[in-house]
């Protein structure tokens, strides 16, 4: 059976929101075996964004919106990286050497790009194009999750918004999150939305001047179904509030 590099949820959802999840899965196509790694490494954050796919699915249902999820581990190919980015097929991730990625040829990198990376992004393009044809103004929402500790630093942010210069939607969502008063919110920490590093939002939204959001949920907060539901509800309500603002 042909490996499907992406999965679509609610493709005809009428909402203007288009949800995407670049690191939804830790699955590895059979051709790569186990990448030379034990299963314990494939359950870590280096292989996927823990909880992000589940949160994205809840949000797609909440808004009756389409969602496209990558179905290949970021250790095979990172769907949020450009072709010339060394992190596209990482040789080392958070101190872990990836045996199957050592000494990759340019030809192999391009093959993975064509086979696993681009089909996912082509599907996102189809959904955006259909909404533009219907005279909608699509809003791209990229769902990620972050490890609670990186390089010995415990991250205090339970949820974080990542943005570049265009903060049309980011700022009202950020304000709505902060207004709650009961959660720790990051603004471009620990990550920004950087067109030199990120691929998905710059390619699908920023080049078209479409409104967009990129959010990071801390993985210990969204590791369980209860946490996933809680944070999808919190974030969804804040997005809904932001979209209802006259500005």
Unreliable segments of 5+ consecutive residues: none
Q: Look at the structure and give the mean pLDDT.
A: 97
Structural class: alpha/beta
Number of strands: 11
**Major sheet:** 7 strands, mixed
Structural summary, described in words:
There is one protein chain. By secondary structure, this protein is an alpha/beta fold. The chain is 32% helix and 17% strand. It has a seven-stranded mixed sheet with strand order 1-3-2-6-11-9-10, sandwiched between helices. The protein has a two-stranded antiparallel ribbon with strand order 4-5. The longest helix is centred in the middle third of the chain and has 28 residues. The mean pLDDT is 97.
Topology:
Elements: E1 6-9, E2 17-21, H1 39-42, H2 52-63, E3 67-70, E4 92-93, E5 96-97, H3 106-133, E6 139-146, E7 149-150, E8 153-154, E9 159-162, H4 170-180, E10 185-187, H5 200-204, E11 212-218, H6 225-244
Parallel strand pairs: 2-3, 2-6, 6-11, 9-10
Antiparallel strand pairs: 1-3, 4-5, 7-8, 9-11
Helix pairs in contact: 2-6, 4-6
What is the gist of this entry?
The protein has 247 residues and is an alpha/beta fold. It has six helices and eleven strands. The strands form three sheets. The chain has a seven-stranded mixed beta sheet with strand order 1-3-2-6-11-9-10, sandwiched between helices.
Task: Please describe the structure with a list of short key phrases separated by commas or semicolons.
247 residues, alpha/beta, seven-stranded mixed sheet, two-stranded antiparallel sheet, 11 strands, 32% helix
